[in-house]
Amino acid sequence: MTKRLKHFYESQQLDKDLIFHFFEEADKMSEKDYEDDLLKGEILATLFCEPSARTKFSPTMTSFKSAMLKLGGNVITEETIKELSSAFEAGSIEDTIMVVGKYSDCAIIKHYEEGTVKRAAEIAEIPLINAGDGRGQNPTQALTDIYTINNEIGRLENLKVILVGDLANGREVRSLSYLLAKLPQNKLTFVSPDNLKMKDDVKGYLRENKIEFEEHSDLNKILPEADVIYMTRIQKERMPSEDYERAKGKYVINESNFSLIRKDARILHPLPRVDEIQLPFHVIRYNPKVAIFNQVENGLYIRMALLKHLIGE
Amino acid sequence: MTKRLKHFYESQQLDKDLIFHFFEEADKMSEKDYEDDLLKGEILATLFCEPSARTKFSPTMTSFKSAMLKLGGNVITEETIKELSSAFEAGSIEDTIMVVGKYSDCAIIKHYEEGTVKRAAEIAEIPLINAGDGRGQNPTQALTDIYTINNEIGRLENLKVILVGDLANGREVRSLSYLLAKLPQNKLTFVSPDNLKMKDDVKGYLRENKIEFEEHSDLNKILPEADVIYMTRIQKERMPSEDYERAKGKYVINESNFSLIRKDARILHPLPRVDEIQLPFHVIRYNPKVAIFNQVENGLYIRMALLKHLIGE
Amino acid sequence: MTKRLKHFYESQQLDKDLIFHFFEEADKMSEKDYEDDLLKGEILATLFCEPSARTKFSPTMTSFKSAMLKLGGNVITEETIKELSSAFEAGSIEDTIMVVGKYSDCAIIKHYEEGTVKRAAEIAEIPLINAGDGRGQNPTQALTDIYTINNEIGRLENLKVILVGDLANGREVRSLSYLLAKLPQNKLTFVSPDNLKMKDDVKGYLRENKIEFEEHSDLNKILPEADVIYMTRIQKERMPSEDYERAKGKYVINESNFSLIRKDARILHPLPRVDEIQLPFHVIRYNPKVAIFNQVENGLYIRMALLKHLIGE
Questions:
Q1: What is the CATH number of the domain that holds A134?
Q2: ipTM of model over 0.90
Q3: Interchain CB contact of B66 with C (< 8 Å)
Q4: Strand partners, A129
Q5: CB-based contact (8 Å) between A245 and chain B?
Q6: For residue A95, which residues of chain C lie inside 8 Å, CB to CB?
Q7: B79 touching A, CB under 8 A?
Q8: Is the domain of B216 the same as that of B290?
Q9: Could you give the CA distance from residue C82 to residue C89 in angstroms, rounded to a whole number?
Q10: Is B195 exposed, middle or buried (CB count within 10 Å of its CB: 0-12, 13-18, 19+)?
Q11: Across all residues in chain B, what is the average pLDDT?
Q12: Which of B196, B245, C259, C292 is paired with A115 by a 20 to 30 Å CA distance?
């Protein structure tokens, strides 16, 4: 029998059975094969706990809101801003979780501090979902990513997956690596500026799970062998500006190396993009080698499947 | 047969048939003659893309949210703030539109840059509606305005319409002028501080459409002949402070010139007001010569009619 | 027959009949004994009018949103920020209320200025509810508080209620005192730093209603006689920093004085907390002497009862 999740805060919680269970459910969602009032009367709270008032638009949050509404549920959106938190929040993530647990049936949390959602799950009365915790994880994006890979390439084994960009701070690429560790017989290659390499926690987990991986510095050289090229932005807000200047623009896909990518390979990106993919918009949209908008769409179906699992079952 | 809009980004898209079609539909909405689950399962995204985190309340946005809910649909509210956009948004309105198109069924966009919604409509997979684009247009307000004029005065021809205030930066007054160009046999008079005159694009369009217009500097002199006095605020945030000081308070309606306005004439204002209408609140609310709160209410019915047209038909 | 409220802006509007009417209704809500589409088609607007963009999360607002959705209604969330209000809001609370009245069926208002909601109610076309007005009141919290006291202690008479903390600026403690004035045969004790004493308007009202009260400076001395200990935070944002330093940490419940509290007594707190209750989280959550999370939950039922009364009846 398939395992049941109570919360979803990190990729390591999944196993192969559960992964493919979510794929089946997501397929049904994409075929409109679901009850549109499955979650009637249920309330999803989205909690945006960020260090400033400035960053607001999150594709992860937006897709969860849409997923909840499509299944007939309702959404309450809340924000707390760290700047003011000395007075209001100090040590009070527990209180916030208790309040939200009384007023909603599930909460999606985006938080500036790594580990917060896992910690909060210990006390929560309702299912919690991690929509990004500092430099930690964004596991629902990783599930979306491998669902997209499976749909686009037709398999989840014997894949050569290249992960490119800010591997030190990008929580999507961290969650994806942890998730790929559940699927042996794939090979990972990390390509990043020197100062933004994949961290040891992920590497250790891959070794434990006997997943083959390597680091490489010449993107163009390995592009022809890649099945999946996972591009990410340099996380400017998480480093000193001199580090950003050193790293930005170092690894990009543009019109000169795009032809090195095989026709049956796929470029993915969790968005938002900065300058990692320097191709005309019509190429990004219509060339089958770029799958990022399919990936966006798949995010809706995967999140519908997750909400059904966590609230509706 | 009446034309069908796919998007609605500027007044010029309308013609006389379509205008009166929307009037009929809005009438039905005001009489509660509509299916209250017409848009069940549909999601409207409101995108607030502003230069700062400070300006939030928009009557246009609020009325669209209400209109969507009244028709049984749902709303997702999103914001992006330009201040941070160097990292997150550069050149990515296309990405944002694609993401929103995957997660909703229609989007209302308020953007700091003129022309954005028209440009975005070229790639959008869902209907887009312009709720204000920089110094560009706010066409759903203009449709509300002429619906109000028609209801209040009983006709849309042989009208003398005076447009007063910041005609250079006010997108409502620009949209209204473009829309009145579709209705000949009316006469427009522009009254503005010297530094905030109506721009040549609008004037050129009026000439092409053979609409009579003039500029005038003495408001009180022409008030007695006016059928409609359309007041607007000086857009402080769009000009140097010395220009604002020069312009503010130059043209106002107050207790001394209110009596110059005929009993069958109407004052309109798209809100928010600053000091353009210096009358006691009970006069603004109850004197039939001031139609601004009827105008606010009509905004709901017109936007219900627009959502029905763009999503429900 | 029970009195009917049109708006709810201050505790003084309630009488004993109405209080117990709301208790009965809240009981039904807690037992899921309500029609889940009672408010179908109705729209609640939440208006957050704050001096800055930084404070966002309000348990009062969140519980109202949840209450509205649970009863089948819909919610529109709006914010206005005072910083920008010189241009947009000056003197225009009336306009805002008129706009909101055209686009929704009830409005919850949180405003930086005392008395705003009462003033707005004079012109509003829809029911208004005060969710906090500057140093004024938060009456729906007070109703939640006495509902909780009644549930926890089993009576609303012959109680000794201690109110602790920032009694000068805390609107919850002010609303609670006004409300307790409707229930004679209870005794109030105010414990606050010297610079943050309960104000004369409340004291005068208590005297008029012949409610016994006293001020006391030694919390530990009176803890053993208390039935209810109502803790509040020092409102840092409403005083000079030297006043805050003088007041903070002066009156707290911690492991050393917690044992002075009787087993059948209850600690309440309107949240958010800062450092007034220095007990381990599991004590706060599971020890029956601390009722703050029951109080949070009761807030939902009371607000459902209020929305039913103001919109649904």
A1: 3.40.50.1370
A2: yes
A3: yes
A4: A8, A108
A5: no
A6: 271-273
A7: yes
A8: yes
A9: 8
A10: middle
A11: 93
A12: C292
Q: Is A77 on the interface with B (CB under 8 A)?
A: yes
| C46 close contact with B: CB closer than 8 A | no
What are C5's two structure tokens? 């409220």
Indicate if C134 and C147 belong to the same structural domain. Answer: no
Which chains touch B (3+ CB pairs under 8 A)? A, C
In this structure, is residue A2 part of a structural domain? no
- Mean per-residue pLDDT pooled into runs of 10, chain C (313 residues): 91 97 98 96 92 74 97 92 47 85 97 94 97 96 98 97 97 98 95 96 97 97 98 91 91 97 98 92 97 98 98 88
Residue B229: phi and psi, rounded to 5, are: -115, 110
CB pair distance less than 8 Å for A293 and B98: yes
Residues A119 and A160 in one domain: no
Residues 214-243 of C with CB under 8 A from A: 233, 236-237
How far A301 CA sits from the closest chain C CA (Å)?
Answer: 24
CA dihedral of B80, A64, A114, A89, whole degrees rounded to 10: 70
Residue C119 placed within a domain: yes
Residue C91, Cβ density class (10 Å: 0-12 exposed, 13-18 middle, ≥19 buried): exposed
Q: Tell me the angle at which helices A292-307 and B93-103 cross, rounded to the nearest 10 degrees.
A: 40
Does the beta-carbon distance from B293 to C102 stay under 8 Å?
yes
Of B54, B66, B273, the CB nearest to C104: B66
Same domain, C214 and C159: yes
Phi, psi (degrees; rounded to nearest 5) at C120: -65, -35
> Residue C126's domain spans which residues?
11-138+298-312
pLDDT reported for residue C260: 98
pLDDT, position C195: 92
pLDDT in tens, B231-244: 999 988 889 999 99
Interface test with C, best of A102, A109, A122 (most C CBs within 10 A): A102
Whether residues B308 and B202 share a domain: the answer is no
Is residue A86 included in any domain, yes or no? yes
Count structural domains, chain A.
2
At residue A1, the pLDDT reads 64
Indicate whether A271 and A150 sit together in one domain.
yes
pLDDT of residue B3: 87
Burial class (CB in 10 A: 0-12, 13-18, 19+), C12: middle
Least confident of A127-131, B110-114, B295-299, C187-191: B110-114
Distance between C180 CA and the closest CA of chain B, angstroms:
37
Q: Which tokens sit at B239?
A: 């000009």
Whether A245 and A226 map to the same domain: the answer is yes
The contacts of residue B252 (CB under 8 Å, 6+ apart) are: B275, B276, B277, B278
- Which residue of C68, C97, C103, C125 is the best one to mutate when testing the B interface, meaning the one whose CB has the most B CBs within 10 A? C103
Q: Is C46 in a helix, a strand, or coil?
A: strand
Residues in chain C closer than 8 A to B26 (CB atoms):
none
Q: Does any domain span residue A6?
A: no
- C297:A102 CB<8 A: yes
Question: Is the domain of B170 the same as that of B95?
Answer: no
Q: Between B and C, how many residue pairs show a Cβ–Cβ distance under 8 A?
A: 71
Q: How many CA atoms lie within 13 A of B61 on its CB side?
A: 25
